[in-house]
UniProtKB/TrEMBL annotation, chains A, B:
PANTHER family: GLYCOLATE OXIDASE SUBUNIT GLCD (PTHR42934:SF2). Gene3D superfamilies: 3.30.465.10, 3.30.70.2740, Vanillyl-alcohol Oxidase, Chain A, domain 4. Signal peptide: none annotated. Its cofactor is FAD. This is FAD-binding protein. Keywords: FAD, Flavoprotein, Oxidoreductase. The keyword Repeat does not apply.
């Protein structure tokens, strides 16, 4: 009875949108201008076209309803927080609906005695931490995006940051999660206690799953008391990045655990110097920044200072807040400074600490081989390097992809990983099998299918060559 | 052609044993006296009969071979470390083979600069820590069984202990694992770096899976530097366990994180007093023991002491090692002291810290209602209580099961969990669904089936009403 000229996909699309509009009045947007930003995140990728609609959920029930409707119509769901992802995991394209949890941003409970908070996923990391500070508490995950990224997004990517060697990755700061499954059912995974071993750890499985297993709708977070006592900062210029990396290794090998240990190479210093009007290269070819905190900070600072000097660094130690901040600003400005070079592809490998020097040297070799510029900053306490490829235009040039591929291969050869903290999303799917091996990749796919048998949750993300390849989502 | 009188299971059994003997000469034991101990662990449960054989694997290849043979014959595999489990997870019965990794006990690598060690699963926790101490390093998991339990077993149960509130559970101290699947394939899950977000976190999924997903054959462990600086101990008697629990809550709410915070109730003190020949009840009805360490220990100790006194405790503070040890001995002797009452069923619930008092009060009510004695000690920093039922004979009396069931129900009602650190094994299968809910339990079962489609890995453990119910393994 359907006229032959009618596109069945278009019919399905208009039906699902009608159903969403009817069931969730006031929470569904379809205007082109509203939909456009959902084609992008901060990865530089752009989807092939706008999604069908955005559901701005205000409650768990809204999320359940949206999932039920999408499932009934076989329409993919892309869960979205603040859209600050760096791997394309939150990008939506044609024939998909966006399920935004950004407006679910309430703090439901703060319990100092249990050191936990229950929050909705849409609250920004920094906003939450402002609220917690009143209680003398703190949620440790500290990605560079903390001012603009959501707690739900931090959890969905198992976000890292500057403080992980001392204070852990996001996984260590989540106790339990409420999750809506693709078909709208609600489950609660994890435990509201520090300990809990009842069955398989589905809470840890959900953390870092990038929207492929379910929609996180409520988060019970493990908190820490705010760190008291002095903070000391050591800034040290080195004649080479290899020597700076070796110094960072010496600090760890000597048994110290700084809160922050950041390393910037010559290219990065060049950019930051130009951006801030300082001649940083006159001071050295690499900068190591170390920050220590807690009760033993002053003892630790002296020891770190001595180790860094012994390793050939021109080091300064300060406990003055303003001076500390000036040092740390050099790191904070690295990304905007590099951004001024053009469009960026930010990579994110992690390698064992004693392989950092090797990884830096390899990046420099690749610069020569491919004629590209790759400023590289590094979380040196956990071996997480960000080789950053700058290029002109929106398209990633073939030689940049090739060089990036060689970065990944070398990281794996050194016993490292493709992604320390940004995730796989769209950007690294093609290399995932190289790291996991086919047997593990196959297990991961089957687990994905257990949660999402119809393949409707963020299809085309994380897993290469999925049934729904998601290639349409790439520009 | 098979004579009608021959039992097909018996034929299969003799075939699998022949195949194992032929393929793994010198590593397969079938003598009755050797098999007998594998019917038990430290849970008090006994299986219905001896297993078919024990494979004492010496290498990854041995484990792979054993799994291939067992899979080919459809024979269940019970992985076993030192057999110190408290929930029956490592018990083997008729028609099953035991795969012991106890003899795979080598330290393959210690890397101070990367703060990791690569070890085989059979090494004892305390033995490993002795080896690590030479490097100034430490593997934090600290179950009470550390002298007699293996690293592999600690990982398979996500073991807890006394130090978890400050130093984390086992999951936080494992970077990556090599795992043999039921069919003999080898995979590596996790990352050798602190950060790593490539796909789903199968390493966390494996930790605490109690032998139901695969056989752990190599462990890359995250280490910590040995804690330096002073250690201080506060011992405080209270007029009631509720007031002692409230004091522990005050310590946490004030932002302190002791390394150890242990609480013993009146029944426990009575047992320990009798066992050690001291009149502890003359000093109070409950004892709170707090130990603080690290650079700020002395400041923290003073603050904790003052809080505990303000909460009504008769408190003593010491930094003397011998005196500290005398205090901690009271806790160490709790289990042997309680054991002198009879056979034990040790429970293991965890509740939010502000519900500990409520849980203690409920246990006391149950003592009255069921006429049973339930000494209860508690890791008070993480809300993990061990209500311990003492009875005569080998069989758990019906009223003890009933009282235990009420302990679980109350813990769940308080927002807690069935098991903080011992696991589900055989003992708590029947309550697992109450905690997880049917939807999550069904997901967990399906994930189990992804790893082990034939249901050969530790069947009848963890999951209630499995295809192979494992009831044969119960005495």
């Amino acid at each position: 009875m359907t006229p032959r000229t009618q596109d069945p996909a278009a019919t399905e699309a208009s039906t699902v949108v009608s159903a969403l509009l009817a069931t969730l009045p006031g929470r569904v947007r379809t205007a082109a201008a509203v939909l456009e930003p959902y084609r992008r995140d901060r990865s530089g990728r752009v989807s092939g076209g706008p999604p069908l609609a955005v559901v701005e959920a205000l409650s768990v029930a809204d999320v359940q309803e949206a999932c039920r409707i999408a499932s009934a119509h076989g329409v993919p769901i892309v869960t979205r927080g603040a859209g600050t992802g760096l791997a394309g995991g939150g990008i939506a394209g044609p024939d998909e609906i966006v399920l935004s949890t950004r407006a679910m941003d309430r703090v439901l409970r703060v319990s100092p005695q249990n050191r936990l908070a229950v929050v909705e996923p849409g609250i920004l990391n920094a906003e939450l931490n402002d609220r917690l500070a009143e209680h003398g508490l703190w949620w440790a995950p500290d990605p560079a995006s903390r001012e603009i990224s959501t707690v739900g997004g931090n959890i969905a990517t198992n976000a890292g940051g500057l403080l992980c060697a001392k204070y852990g990755v996001t996984r260590e700061s989540v106790l339990s999660l409420k999750v809506v499954l693709a078909d709208g059912r609600l489950i609660q995974v994890g435990h509201d206690t520090v300990k809990g071993v009842t069955g398989l750890d589905l809470c840890a499985l959900m953390i870092g799953s990038e929207g492929t297993l379910g929609v996180i709708v409520e988060c019970t977070l493990r908190l820490r008391p705010l760190v008291s006592g002095p903070i000391a900062t050591i800034g040290a210029f080195f004649p080479s990045v290899e020597r700076a990396a070796a110094a960072a290794g010496d600090v760890v090998a000597a048994g110290w655990t700084p809160a922050v240990m950041e390393l910037m190479d010559r290219r990065t210093l060049e950019c930051v110097g130009r951006y801030t009007g300082q001649d940083l290269l006159a001071r050295g070819d690499a900068l190591l920044l170390v920050q220590v905190d807690g009760a033993g900070a002053l003892t630790e600072a002296d020891a770190v200072h001595d180790l860094v000097v012994a390793a050939g660094g021109a080091a300064e130690l300060t406990t003055d807040a303003a001076e500390s901040s000036r040092w740390m600003d050099l790191r904070r400005q690295a990304f905007p400074a590099i951004e001024s070079l053009g469009t960026l592809l930010v990579e994110d490998v992690a390698v064992p600490l004693d392989r950092m020097s090797d990884m830096f040297a390899h990046v420099r070799r690749l610069e020569g081989r491919y004629g590209v510029i790759i400023p590289t900053a590094c979380h040196a306490g956990d071996g997480n390097l960000h080789p950053t490829f700058a290029f002109q235009g929106e398209e990633v040039p073939a030689e940049v992809w090739q060089a990036a591929g060689e970065v990944f291969e070398h990281a794996l050869a050194l016993g490292g990983t493709l992604s320390g903290e940004h995730g796989i999303g769209l950007l690294k799917r093609r290399w995932l099998g190289d790291e996991l091996g086919e047997d593990q990749l196959d297990l991961q796919r089957q687990i994905k299918a257990v949660f999402d048998p119809a393949g409707l949750l963020n299809p085309g993300k994380v897993f290469p060559d999925d049934d729904r390849s998601g290639e349409h989502a790439l520009s």
